[in-house]
Amino acid sequence: CGNAAPMVVGCAGGYGTYVLSNGTVTVKKSLFIGGATTNDLQRTGWTDPTKTQGGYPKGNNYPHDRHDAKGTFTVACADKAKACKLDVTETITLSSDGAGTLEVVGSGATVKAKNMVVSNQVAEVEGGASTVRFVADAEGLSPVTVSGNLTLAENVKLEVDMSAYAGKRNVKFKIFDCKTRTGAFAPDNVTLV
Predict the structure, then answer these.
(1) What is the DSSP pairing of strand 190-192 with strand 157-161?
(2) Strands (E), 35-167
């Protein structure tokens, strides 16, 4: 499709949840988890295919004054014999216009993007801090692979649950594999179980 649109999970005061348990999701533009501003949508190059609404949904009734979206995208491989892959051509952005959570469950998932932004643009949303959550299975964790830059805003949260892990102790797991990184998770915002 020549006019690929971004994917938004949770938008303009709404709640969105997407669970990928097997299969492949390829997002040809950017993925926004926890809202997307109208500027975000325009920056991705998305426009109204009818060319009549300036890039906004038909009727130009996009509730641009709502900044309280909540979105969760979970990648949880149910059958390791099958693919379980999220592939984003451009950027994964958490909490651009609300509260976003990316959850990667188990050791059989693949999550890839060119860039990733873990934002706190709208921190006043209840539960508004961006959260990246990794949950181990008996064999370990799956990393998020970012071929470009990983950007971490202040006060973003990292949660790692190793309670199901049954392998060797004192093993290091890479949870992010990125070319460059801007920012870091503050120790007070990291939860290890």
Answers:
(1) parallel
(2) 69-76, 84-94, 98-105, 110-118, 131-135, 144-152, 157-161
Distances (CA, A) of 161 to 3, 143, 144, 183: 39, 13, 15, 22
What pLDDT is recorded for position 99? 85
Torsion sign, CA atoms 52, 54, 56, 61: negative
Question: Global pTM?
Answer: 0.85
Torsion of CA 115, 118, 119, 125, to 10 degrees: 140
Terminal CA-to-CA distance of the chain, rounded, Å?
43
Degrees, nearest 5: CA angle 21-92-145: 70
pLDDT attached to residue 129? 74
Residue 93: CB atoms within 10 Å: 28
For β-strands 31-33 and 15-20, DSSP reports them as: unpaired
Sequence-ordered alpha helix ranges (H) in the chain: 38-43
**Number of DSSP helices (H) and strands (E) in the chain, helices first:** 1, 13
Question: What gap in Å lies between CA 76 and CA 179, rounded to an integer?
Answer: 24
Q: pLDDT tens for residues 155-192?
A: 899 999 999 999 998 999 999 999 999 999 999 999 99
